[in-house]
Amino acid sequence: MKRFVKDLGLSTVQSSGGLIGVSNGKTLVFEESSWFIINIIKLIWQYGFQPLRMHMWVEDVLDKFMRIYRYQSHDYAFSSVENLLHSLGGDDFLGMLNRTILETLQKAGFSEKFLDEMIVPINRLNYGQGTGINSFVGVVSLAGADSGLWAVEGGNKLVCSRLLQASRSNLISGSVMYIEEKTRTKQTGNPTKMYEIVYQTGSETRSDFYDIVLVATPLNRKMSNITFLNFDPPIEEFHQYYQQIVSTFIRGKLNSTIFSSRTLDEFGLTTVLTTDKSDLFINSIGIVSSVRENNNPQASTGGAFVWKIFSRETLTKEQILKLFVSYDYSVKQQWLAYPHYKPPEKCPSIILHDRLYYLNGIECAASAMEMSAIAAHNAALLAYHRWYEHTDMIDQEDLYEKLKTEL
């Protein structure tokens, strides 16, 4: 994403920060201070050196994962998600798909208290799940809780619209109904295999033919409803269950006493995460930050902010009134946000057919914008190399050592 932002001339906005607390439904089990040294003392007092060990482990995994950018800068591609991960971290990375983050961290000696109060709340915020997720997505989740987070000024959506504009592609707005391989005769008189895409746009049904097709949407019946006709062998069916998350935006005055005995004026937290043992009906709640530079969240008269709440179910009126002393409005968005992780994970194929590729299989390893960008780059390289039969650029072993030697 950073490369896209740079190439497109976009600007970034750093996270506005703020203080975070963790609630077990009865009290705040951890609460950040505005003083860095106080936070260090609190963490050591409650969890010893486990936070430091956790940080070092996450950094080690991320350092290995960063190799993908070097591989892709040299135009190497991978024919499966497993091959991609193995090239980055060997059997250790593949093993992470087959173990829960709970199993991995328990084996490493992390305490139940640390897992319940630090790891679970972060996972509930980022993936709506606890410690049952696979270890790889667990690392991605923990990395997302680190400092230094940023957004694209004006909104991350600008990356998509500007990439589309820069590519000079022809965007057709419609819903794909089915894909079928057919034989067509070229102007030279030679027959060739192509893919017919039948789609609906408005009240019309249309079709076009393509040499190469990349599918960039989860191929689940509840999400895409794309039918693959007359393929031999048939295209595999996808049964990955996606986790429902409800995002609710509320402009109101928080009832801070639901989290602590302090009044709102003395509360001071901008984000509250929750543990699995909490009887609260939310995963997290936090003040919405602006995507404009130097435009930090401001309270309206009366102390009302815009809050973003993640929950598994739609909030009832009674629940909203429990969270807020008063509120002006609420807006909700219910969506199937990411896979429900339950290791061992088997990632779908990238190559569905000869020249038919699938990007979203990488979500089974970890779902994130950056993962989707990597998957898209890999699929483009893979399609190119297979079209021109550059087999030496696909699934190469020991790339890390090979490229290091070339330097």
Automatic annotation (TrEMBL):
One of its GO terms (biological process) is prenylated protein catabolic process. SUPFAM superfamilies: FAD/NAD(P)-binding domain. Keywords: FAD, Flavoprotein, Glycoprotein, Lysosome, Oxidoreductase, Signal. It holds the Pfam family Prenylcys_lyase. Its cofactor is FAD. GO terms for cellular component: lysosome. Its EC number is 1.8.3.5. GO terms for molecular function: prenylcysteine oxidase activity. Residues 30-396 form the Prenylcysteine lyase domain. It is found in: Lysosome. InterPro entries: FAD/NAD-bd_sf, Prenylcys_lyase, Prenylcysteine_Oxase1. Belongs to the prenylcysteine oxidase family. Prenylcysteine oxidase that cleaves the thioether bond of prenyl-L-cysteines, such as farnesylcysteine and geranylgeranylcysteine. Only active against free prenylcysteines and not prenylcysteine residues within prenylated proteins or peptides. Involved in the final step in the degradation of prenylated proteins, by degrading prenylcysteines after the protein has been degraded. This is Prenylcysteine oxidase 1. It comes from Molossus molossus.
